[in-house]
Amino acid sequence: MGLRLAACVAALGIAAVAASPASAQKKGGTLRLYHNDNPPSTSLLEESTIASVMPFAAVFNNLVVFDPAKVHESIDTVVPDLAESWSWDSTNTKLTFKLRHGVKWHDGQPFTAKDVQCTWRMLIGKAETQDFKRNPRKVWYTKLKDVSINGDDEATFELTEPQPGLLTLLASAFSVVYPCHVPQQVMRTKPIGTGPFKFVEFRRGDQIRLVRNPDYFKKDRPYLDEITVRSIDSRATRMLAFSTGDYDITFPSDVSVPLMKDVKARAPSAICEMTATNTQINLLVNRVNPPFDNPDIRHAMSLALDRKAFNTILFEGSARLGGAMLAKPEGEWGMPAEVLSTLMGYSPDTEKSLAEAQAIMQKLGYSDAKPLSIKIQTRNLPTYRDPAVILADQLKKIYIVAELDILDTPRWYSRLQRKDYTIGLNVTGVSVDDPDGNLVENYSCNSERNYTQYCNADVDKLLAAQSRELDKDKRRKLVFDIERILVDDAARPIILHSSAGNCWQPYVRNFHPHDNSQYNNLRFEDVWLDK
222 preceded by cis ω (within 30°)? Predict the structure, then answer.
């Protein structure tokens, strides 16, 4: 199962309990979670961060979702949610959903096909009222002409051309359905959904509370009465609080390899697994700001990255080396290692790459005596700060002297949105392992999340070609062609694909971290507490 290691169960007695048949699900109880940050808002359609997904995914439903019980997400693990079924027409340009009847929004209003139509018309900019502050995934739906409806229980997505990845995009935690009758200003602070839990309160920097939805359309769900989420700034405090039993599940990606060992030492009965997260540490270079508008400097920076050192220091070797798409074996679209090693900066001969980078910088007039001084901006989380320190150290070897500029989450995303930075150390979360949900979102010319302002007409043509290709093997070949260009252009050099630990108390049942995305298993409607 790749990185999924049974790193837990210290005692044979615990192992026997874990292996025994599941007892009957118990209803009731409060799931106690902690948060490592402040969510920018409660509006999942406007946000791009796990900081909003983790506490608020349980408020909403999608048309379809990835089966929460299956650890590897793919088109084959997509299951119904608000939709009972779906079908493509013969041209593969019309995707029709039969919707559940009798579903209610948390305020008692009925859910209908009009809500589906309204949600995606807002996303593609076709709605009469468009008051999103941000629309980071609008680029997912460039082929979507409209959503037509047939009565209250049927909605059809009408495309200009085939898009085989659409169903996986719709299964993302960021593809929730919104109520037409609720303004976006309300959705940002007091969200109304159809999901298993109803929003109660959001005290920024303190606590988030959700309570069981008694009218949930899955009549035996959720099992829990309540979910509480407390904000804790210090990672050391968070790990200690989990180890002493104050919290039931750790925050996604919060537990590093060394910290997981510490958690296990303090709480030997805790269940912990290392998984790929589909988050990638990458170097952001704003290519319109001098001197970084010079492609030679960007190439030198890309060559100077010693990925093995990052992996050893941060992950004890457990992270994955790859291009823009999630690396194998978890990644469905990852390049083979033998192909990856031929790309610029990926050679195992790091000394040769460094020498080449130094020569480029020397030719441009830089040296130890005449360095290039910069600021590296990054987010105020350990998963960002720690690799940023290593990046600064490695850039020093090519005469770039960097000072870290640490930003809180709202300022970080605001700067990225405005392209108001020069160099950044980013951790890009990819919610679904599909090229349309990653390459199109992060590298196409007109995408809101194209933070480096990279624009290559040839890449855009290839992105469009792979998106409509129905043959997966042919589509994968097009993706590899795109990956090569992105590396040659130093579009957004990928340093590593992260791994992280997930830990939960032994009495938490039916919680399954997924091995190719940290985003899509956080609704908690199947979780129950065996205590």
Answer: yes
496-517 burial, b at 16+ Cβ within 10 Å, e below that, comes to bbbbbbbbbbbbbbebbbbbbb
Kind and range of the H or E run holding 495: strand 494-504
| Residue 405: half-sphere exposure toward Cβ, Cα within 13 Å | 14
Q: Which pLDDT score, from 0 to 100, does residue 131 have?
A: 80
The answer to pTM > 0.90 is yes
Determine how β-strand 83-88 pairs with β-strand 94-99.
Answer: antiparallel
| Residue located via tokens 């409607």 | 525
**Length, in residues, of the chain:** 531
Gap between the Cα atoms of 266 and 422, Å rounded: 42
Which three-class secondary structure state does DSSP give residue 284? strand
- How far, CA to CA in Å, does 307 sit from each of 79, 196, 320, 483? 37, 42, 10, 17
Asked whether the bond before 183 is cis by omega within 30 degrees of 0, the reply is no
d(CA 351, CA 213): 58
Torsion sign, CA atoms 14, 17, 18, 23: negative
Q: Confirm if 155 and 96 have CB atoms less than 8 A apart.
A: yes
Query: Tokens 């608000």 belong to which residue?
Result: 82
Q: Are 104 and 111 in contact (CB under 8 A)?
A: yes
Cα–Cα distance for residue pair 198/209, rounded to 1 Å: 9
| CA-wise closest residue to 128 among 112, 137, 117 | 117
**Residue 310 backbone zone (phi > 0: left; psi -120 to 50: alpha; other: beta):** alpha
**H or E element that contains 64:** strand 64-66
pLDDT by residue (tens digit) across 213-241?
999 999 999 999 999 999 999 999 999 99
Question: 469 — phi, psi (to 5°)?
Answer: -75, 120
Give the pLDDT mean for 137-163. 97
- Spatial separation of the C-alpha atoms in residues 127 and 151, rounded to whole Å: 19
Please give the C-alpha separations between residue 304 and each of 189, 299, 381, in angstroms, as whole numbers: 43, 9, 24
Q: Which residues contact 381 (CB under 8 A, 6 or more apart)?
A: 36, 37, 409
Taking only the tens place, the pLDDT of each residue in 172-219 is 999 999 999 999 999 999 999 999 999 999 999 999 999 999 999 999
The conformational region for residue 77 under phi > 0 = left, psi -120 to 50 = alpha, else beta, is alpha
Comparing C-alpha atoms, which of 310, 493, 281 is closest to residue 390? 310
Tell me the C-alpha distance between 210 and 228, whole Å: 6
Contact 495, 307 (CB under 8 A): yes
What digits encode the pLDDT tens for the residues 9-20?
A: 333 333 333 333
